[in-house]
Amino acid sequence: IELIKERNFSIAVDAVNSTGGIALPLLLQTLGVSQIEQYHCEPNGKFPRNPEPIPENLLDFSREIEKGNFDLGIVVDPDVDRLAFIQENGEPFGEEYTLVAVADYILENHPGGTTVSNLSSTRALKDITEKHGGTYHASAVGEVHVVEQMKKHQAVIGGEGNGGIIYPELHYGRDALVGIALFLTKLAKFGKSVSRLRASYPNYYISKQKIELTEDIDVDQLLAMIQEKYKRQPVNNVDGVKIEFDKEWVHLRKSNTEPIIRIYAESDTLATAEYLGSKIISDMKEIITNNQ
pLDDT tens digits for 142-195? Predict the structure, then answer.
């Protein structure tokens, strides 16, 4: 707390008029932050925008940060279990990297520790974990599955790429308040700007696409055929089909409510990630055509 106080951070908070409007300012004050600017912190439940804390919903808030009056912007969702940061230059820190930064701090203090995230989360967490001599495990998508793997492997930190932080030393649930405290401690010890901290991590981009199918197509069979096509690559079928290509990957998940397969792909450029996803979509279309 003393280190955070010494840094004299100026922080803007957007709590989307949820209970976070009560909790976040109190937490920051307790942590020694005296310069706090509150946006949408009246807990009346009237959301001023789409409440999901993703970049396209935070454009106005990002413009406020970009003016140069703040060291950091903090955004939470209505139930305060998802956490996103805005860098001092107005650029998103990246919801995928919330967990990466927090895990980096935890692993500095628990070298060799284990981490867990879901199969659709960034590879950057694995990179950071291995940098600290630790072991990374991937779970099926969903908080309950992440927690299950965290307990199984006694992980020191875990979560999801949507900004969900799970710190088992306190409890096994996503908690933005815990994430804020850990992130500010990391930032204070780092001693430089948020953008410099973000630049210190491996840079990956995730593409999200989907293919709509007709009702007569056997989705499970289609996924099995894709798995067979790429059997020479590392494949994980715990939750759909995830294919790894060195430091790139593609994850295919079927919808349980409609004939759709969602395709997530990650690479070191967005263009390459989109290409990987498009290539798999092309493969599926070819399989469908050849089996008609």
Answer: 999 999 999 999 999 999 999 999 999 999 999 999 999 999 999 999 999 999
Per-position DSSP letters for 225-273, written without gaps between them: HHHHHTTTS-EE-SSSEEEEETTEEEEEEE-SSSSEEEEEEEESSHHHH
CA 228, distance to chain mean position in Å, is: 30
For 6-17, the pLDDT digits (tens) are 999 999 999 999
Specify the amino acid at residue 43: P
Sheet holding 83-86, edge to edge: 35-39, 10-14, 72-76, 83-86
Rounded Cα gap, residues 65 and 88, in angstroms: 6
Retrieve residue 9's tokens. Answer: 């951070």
Architecture of domain 2-94 in CATH? 3-Layer(aba) Sandwich (3.40)
User: Which stretch of DSSP H or E encloses residue 183?
Assistant: helix 176-190
Give the integer Cα–Cα distance in Å for 253 and 7. 44
Contacts of 257 (CB under 8 A, 6+ apart): none
The architecture that CATH gives domain 205-290 is 2-Layer Sandwich (3.30)
- What is the distance in angstroms between the CA of the first residue and the CA of the last residue of the chain? 64
Q: Write out the two tokens for 105.
A: 């701090």
Residue 148, class by beta-carbon neighbours within 10 Å (0-12 exposed, 13-18 middle, 19+ buried)?
A: middle
Nearest to 164 by CA among 84, 275, 219, 258: 84
Provide the 8-state DSSP code for 18. Answer: S
Q: What is the pTM of this model?
A: 0.94
What span, in angstroms and rounded, lies between the C-alpha atoms of 167 and 159?
A: 8
Three-state SS string over 101-140 comes to HHHHHHHHHCCCCEEEEECCCCCHHHHHHHHCCCEEEEEC
Q: Considering only CA atoms, which of 3, 34, 57, 29 is closest in space to residue 14?
A: 57
* Per-domain boundaries in the chain: 2-94, 205-290
